Amino acid sequence: MNAPDIKTLIYNKREGYVEIRFNRPHRLNAVVEQLYDELIAALRQAETDPEIRAVLLTGEGRAFCVGADMKEHSVGKRTQLQRRQYLQLANDACETIFRLKKPVVAAINGYALGAGAEIACSCDFVFMAESAKIGFPEVSIGTCVAGGVTLFLPRLVGLAKARELIFSGIKIDGIEAARIGLAFRAVTDDRLQCEASDFIRELATKAPISMELVKKLLNNASHTDLDAQLQHELNGVFMCTTTQDWQEGVDAFAQKRSPNFKGC
Predict the structure, then answer these.
(1) Residue 182 in contact with residue 157, Cβ under 8 Å?
(2) What is the share, in percent, of the chain residues with pLDDT greater than 90?
(3) Where do the structural domains in the chain lie, given as residue ranges?
(4) How many CA atoms lie within 13 A of 34 on its CB side?
(5) Angle formed by the axes of helices 33-48 and 80-99, to 10°?
């Protein structure tokens, strides 16, 4: 994705992964239709690029994403259809993250509220700066959570804690988010980008086909019974044994060296 093609994101391709940075710092990266459109397009491009093994989402400036841009919402009037289309875009962005064949890591700097928290919950791993704040203010302003939060959040923190976070709208910092399982890891503010980048570079060394399979297995496990899940896992293991990467993993183990996976 070339710079002239996007206005609300920064798309930086690194060695083995891509960093997608929300780029509306003047509005604390509040979302508008264009940001959702460009995010979905960027994720799909990353998914089809064989050189990219993982995706890092973060925010430019002082926030990850503070939710919907209420100033933009107040300008002009949407028809019922346009309102529905905007809401669908929000769901589509979170679903694209959740179903992406490659792992997605969020690095939360500053606030992640509303839509920003929904995006974070859709990711496979969430790093938070210790001083960062995440919250779901929707009920407090007369709207409803979306983006799969009512499915994802109870999985992460349990139903009782999910109820508290959503009904109360409280904001919690990175330390508390990590304690309850909402964040994978809380790090000092100055180490956030470094820690998240180190982690994602490590992910990028793993076998891509294996990561795709286990992500899908984990995401679908909560609504699959044991017999079906065992069969899905068996199919996954068998599929891996047909790949060159499986042979590379076997050879590397025997030769006591690090494997060099190609994704085939």
Answers:
(1) yes
(2) 89
(3) 3-203, 208-254
(4) 11
(5) 30
Instruction: Region of 85 please: left (phi>0), alpha (psi -120 to 50) or beta.
Output: alpha
Residue in 19, 138, 195, 212 annotated catalytic = 138
Q: Which of 19, 38, 60, 118 is catalytic?
A: 118
Q: Who contacts 232 (Cβ-Cβ below 8 Å, separation ≥6)?
A: 217, 220, 224
Supply the mean pLDDT for the chain: 94
- What does the block give as tokens for 253? 């183990």
Average pLDDT over residues 174-198: 97
d(CA 66, CA 25): 10
The residues near 140 (Cβ < 8 Å, ≥ 6 apart) are: 169
Q: Is-catalytic flag, 19? A: no
CATH homologous superfamily of 3-203 equals 2-enoyl-CoA Hydratase; Chain A, domain 1 (3.90.226.10)
For the chain, the C-alpha Rg in angstroms (whole number) is 19
DSSP label of 68: B
118 is catalytic: yes
